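agent> call fold_tool(seq_1)
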Amino acid sequence: MLVVVIAVDQLSKHAIEHSIVPGEERKFLPGVELVNTRNHGVAFGFLPGNHIGVTVLISLALLALLVYFALHAAQPWMWLPTGMLIGGALGNILDRVRHGSVTDFIKFPLGWPPFNLADSSITLGILILFVLVDRSRQAKS
């Protein structure tokens, strides 16, 4: 899962960077536009411009995830959210290393900040992880 997330994320960002001029908006689906923007913060534009804070936050989150995964690796499906979270984080880290910021390109209406597939993978990975943790706790009760 990790490799798939990184590959799809990087390929989609490359396609956007080479097909949409920064500032341009293209209709994609009803209520969804494609844009080419740069994000200096974390997912969905949080903590913009705080490179040290972003690096510390991502590092702590990945460390906590790896510790949790190591302690619960035998739990069914634990590999899925772990791969999604680490793959999404690494996809955005690759952008930061190469460009100093992350390419975001999916834009919803009503002022929602643009995001990318790595952000989506991280968000879905967190939701799946919460479901797995909840099911594990229910099974123990």
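agent> call fold_tool(seq_2)
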Amino acid sequence: MLNYHYDWSVVLHSLPALLRGLLYSLEIAFVTLGCAFALGLVVALCRMSTFRPLSVAAYVYIQVFRALSLYVYILWVYFGLGIAFDINLSPLQAAIVSLTFLYSAYTAEIFRAAIGAVDVGQREAGTALGLGVVGIFVSIAFPQAIRIAIPALVNSLVDIVKDSAIVAIIGAGDLMYTTIQLSNYYVRSFEFYTVTAGIYLVVILLLTRIATTVERIFPVRAA
């Protein structure tokens, strides 16, 4: 290592490619968050359902996807589904599908806790006003629950950005995949991985700062 000659110029010349990879990573992260948001809400409502088979199915879904290894799971989605069921997903599609199902299990628990934190008196007031179950949820419970859930959802985005680096193993053109390709091409592993680590650090710190700000704006209030 003492005889190693650093050459940061190759990284500087490769910054446009690294930034494209970063944008690709952020695209995966934000699309995943949106999909996990929608699917997680559905799973949370199923989990809270009084219809026991539906509640049990949602419980099993949450436990299974929270227990899966992302590394094994994403390889199974990309390669396994194609071989077994002739479902050919692009690296981008496989990455979003894998992360969506995984994080929908976590967002389901976030929503379940947030909905449960809404004061039961609010629901009783909705019933007194003649609102049905759907009306109470849409007009009263959900607006308050989403306010409670926002900080945790922002934290989930931070986790998704960090975990998205693993999609490089299936050839998705994210920041990590781009870094691997450039590192191999220029034979400059230290320079490229150091800069990429710095990029991830900056992005995560920015998102963490956003999460902290959101938590101050929308403090969690239990029932």
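agent> summarizing second result for user.
Residues 9-217 form a domain with the MetI-like fold fold (CATH 1.10.3720.10). The CA atoms of residues 86 and 221 lie 48 Å apart.
agent> awaiting next instruction.
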